[in-house]
Design goal:
HAMP_dom, 23 strands, membrane, nucleotide-binding, five-stranded antiparallel sheet, alpha+beta, Beta-Lactamase, single chain, 21 helices, His_kinase_dom
Length: 801
């Protein structure tokens, strides 16, 4: 097997060696850490045992001192040979007791103070070489008195106390002298903790030369053999001494010591100092070095052995890979036909099969990539087509013309290439999508006709009569069908499936053979116009996600353009209205007072000569013309000013009766019959004042229409109905007047266009604006000499639940 510098075998062996070394070093460090922890724990345990032993040893020394004191005091009367009531005799007794104690143990009792006291702590005699402040003064007498009484009640016969930076133990022993005075007395032995005591304890515990013993008072070093100055601060931080023992670590002159300390408490159980031992860490450090070196040697040996064995094993296992490498090189050159020797190793056999499967997969992937390239090219063509559609799209005043241009682009092979495009216009009057027009791809139509001539005529009606079928379709504007849902939610909906499997809102769709369809809503921000349904009838094309996203972009762009068109129209209308308003204010505002003066003068002139009828008629004519000018001026101002609607809930039936009641007298005077049929007693949301203006204007126009027609029966019918399926009401105002021509109908809402010379031509323009503000619809249908039908659609008020 040829081994190259960057071969897999070298890398496997290299990374395996790294893994072995990392693992071994980690284990070594872990073992060293565990060993160090174990060594330190052993030192701590040893210190714990020694400090407990030291505590017991010191307590034993106190007890031994008490026993020695007791034995000496028993024979002291014989040794004294004097009257014990004499003060000199008590001092002599104390001296004798101290001498006897020093004979027993000079080091232990050399600095002791022997004091004979009364029951109240008064000093009767004393002897000793101790410091003066060990003697019993007034303060220590009270302390002694309390401890004397406590020793009798609690059997406590010694206590610790502190004077300055010295700690001493006081041993109390009852003493009764022979003689006349039989009052109870006590022998008090004051034994300070000094170097002699510490040496005795050191020998008792069995410390080595490297280990230290010391006394700490108020966190300052006082006695011992540590390399510290007397009075030097021992701990940097203040510690909690509420427990009997303390363990820690301290470095002195670059030497580490493991501390074990016994806390000393006074007669009030208050901390006053520590006796401690410091075990040297030098021996532990040497042991740590030995352990670390031993573990590292073992680990190095394991690493060398493991890497050598693993390298040999990997070489044997991976040697068959050279054949697989040759096969891989053949595949890279396009040679997918190869055979590999059937190796005994299962993995090699698996790799051989994998190479064969890989070759097959590569062939399939090549095929799939070609298909994707074709699809990508289609998407690029579609993007180009949509770009052309957007560039050529014109938003017409009649939105149906815009929809027809979209249908043509959708079904063109040079465009988006759909088979059919059907448009369903949204009717606000009946709240329904109504089929209006359709367009068929010419290529699909020709192919289908050829196929039908050769085979059958089964699809003829789905192509040739598509428009007739579409105009028969009506779809409720609801969420339960896809077309209504797409328009309500203003989004593209598509399915790559047969149309009959979905609810499209009308059963006639099942006969149209809808296949792989997409619904394209046409809308603006404030109005819904309808939906275009396109499909791939007679084609095997599938609508992709990318295609739907492109159509969504086209839909949004179309909506924006429609909105911009409406905004532009509203802007023009607003500017025109504003200009009219300025003209009205400029030219008619200042003439208002002049017109009032003219009317006043005309009226006074008419009153001057009651017999001149010609003058009166002339004055009346002038007055009527001036009043007419004022009326036209007020209408012009009303049309030009902006008005905020005061929307409120209106009981529609009552409101309509109130409006008609005000107009009824004028109609009766002119022999006009007004018939009302109201089949709705609910509510609407609107501005009462504005809606009253609407009905006044429309009924006034109907009155003029029937008055201008020479007919004996003058009728106006007002009909209000509500469809059960939609939340809208329809109001029809029908008259049998002179009617209107097609030209008049086309300009019925345009301002300043009137076919009656006595009106300014703004009434219906104002009516149209009011209905639009109420989100309603108003339409006129009329025939000359037959009459006019005004249709108004308003929304029903629905209370929120």
């Amino acid at each position: 097997m040829r081994i190259k510098k960057n071969s897999l075998l070298i890398k496997i062996i290299f990374y395996n060696d790294i893994a072995i070394m990392i693992t071994s070093v980690t284990i070594a460090l872990f073992l060293i850490f565990i060993s160090f922890e174990s060594l330190e724990n052993k030192v701590i345990d040893s210190g714990r045992d020694k400090i407990i032993l030291l505590n017991r040893g010191y307590n034993a020394a106190i007890i031994n001192a008490k026993d020695d004191l007791f034995q000496v005091s028993r024979n002291i009367n014989v040794l004294a040979g004097k009257n014990l009531n004499n003060t000199i005799t008590y001092n002599t007794i104390a001296k004798l007791i101290r001498n006897q104690l020093t004979k027993k143990n000079l080091k232990m009792y050399s600095e002791t103070l022997i004091t004979i006291v009364s029951a109240n702590g008064t000093t009767l005699g004393e002897s000793g070489n101790g410091k003066d402040y060990f003697r019993i003064d007034e303060r220590s007498r009270h302390i002694l008195e309390r401890n004397l009484s406590r020793s009798e009640s609690e059997m406590s016969n010694y206590y610790f106390s502190k004077v300055g930076k010295d700690i001493y133990a006081r041993i109390l022993l009852p003493y009764t002298s022979e003689g006349n005075n039989s009052k109870k007395k006590f022998i008090v032995m004051t034994m300070p903790i000094n170097d002699n005591v510490l040496n005795e304890l050191r020998n008792f515990v069995g410390l080595t030369e490297e280990d230290k013993i010391f006394l700490v008072v108020d966190n300052t070093y006082q006695l011992g053999d540590m390399e510290l100055k007397k009075g030097e601060r021992f701990f940097k931080k203040k510690l909690n001494w509420e427990y009997d023992y303390f363990y820690g670590k301290k470095t002195v002159n670059n030497k580490t010591y493991y501390l074990s300390m016994y806390n000393i408490h006074n007669y009030n159980k208050q901390y006053i100092g520590n006796i401690g031992i410091a075990l040297s860490g030098d021996s532990i450090l040497k042991t740590k070095v030995k352990v670390s070196f031993s573990i590292l040697l073992i680990v190095v040996g394991l690493i060398v052995t493991s890497t050598t064995i693993c390298a040999r094993i990997f070489y044997e296992l991976l040697s068959p890979l050279s054949k697989l490498i040759d096969a891989a090189e053949g595949i890279s050159k396009g040679n997918y036909d190869f055979t590999l020797k059937n190796e005994d190793v299962e993995e090699i056999r698996t790799l051989s099969k994998s190479f064969e499967q890989m070759a097959e997969s590569i062939r399939n992937n090549e095929k799939m990539m070609k298909e994707k390239n074709i699809k990508l090219q289609e998407n690029l063509n579609r993007i180009d087509a949509i770009e052309k559609i957007l560039m050529g799209l014109q938003i017409e005043d009649d939105i149906t013309l815009t929809v027809r241009s979209l249908q043509s682009a959708f079904t063109s092979e040079m465009g988006l290439g759909y088979s059919r495009a059907m448009y369903f216009r949204y009717s606000r009057e009946i709240d329904t999508l109504v089929g209006e027009c359709s367009h068929v791809n010419s290529v699909v139509k020709n192919d289908m006709m050829k196929t039908e001539k050769e085979e059958s005529e089964g699809f003829e009606f789905q192509i040739s009569t598509l428009t007739k079928l579409v105009t028969l379709i009506k779809i409720p504007f609801k969420d339960d069908n896809l077309l209504g849902k797409a328009l309500k939610e203003k989004r593209i909906i598509y399915h790559n499936d047969k149309g009959y499997r979905y609810n499209l809102g009308n059963d006639l769709f099942k006969s149209l053979g809808i296949n792989n369809f997409l619904i394209f809503p046409v809308y603006s921000e404030t109005r819904n116009y309808g939906c275009i349904l396109v499909d791939y009838f007679g084609k095997n094309n599938v609508i992709s996600q990318e295609e739907a996203e492109l159509m969504t972009l086209l839909c949004i762009n179309t909506s924006i353009r429609i909105g911009n068109k409406m905004l532009e129209e509203e802007k023009i209308d607003y500017e025109r209205t504003a200009t009219i308003g300025k003209l009205a204010d400029r030219f008619f505002g200042r003439r208002e007072d002049s017109l009032k003066k003219i009317i006043s003068i005309v009226e006074r002139m008419a009153e001057c000569d009651y017999n001149n009828s010609c003058l009166k008629d002339g004055m009346k004519s002038i007055r009527d013309e001036v009043v007419k000018i004022k009326h036209e001026n007020s209408i012009l101002k009303e049309y030009s000013k902006s008005y905020e609607n005061n929307m409120e809930i209106i009981e529609f039936e009552k409101f309509l009766y109130d409006v008609i009641e005000k107009m009824q007298p004028d109609l009766e005077v002119n022999n006009i019959t007004l018939s009302m049929f109201i089949n709705y007693n609910g509510k609407i949301m609107g501005d009462k004042k504005q809606l009253e203006r609407v009905f006044n204007e429309l009924i006034k126009n109907a009155k003029q229409a029937v008055m201008n027609k020479n007919v004996s029966s003058k009728k106006i019918n007002l009909i209000v109905t509500k469809d059960k399926n939609i939340d809208k009401i329809r109001i029809n105002i029908i008259d049998n007047g002179i009617g209107m021509t097609e030209e008049q109908l086309s300009n019925v809402f345009d301002p300043f266009i009137s076919f009656n010379e006595n009106t300014p031509g703004l009434g219906l323009a104002i009516v149209h604006r009011i209905i639009k503000d109420h989100h309603g619809v108003i339409k006129f249908s009329s025939k000359v000499d037959e009459g006019t039908d005004v249709k108004i659609t308003l929304n029903v008020y629905k209370e929120e639940i």
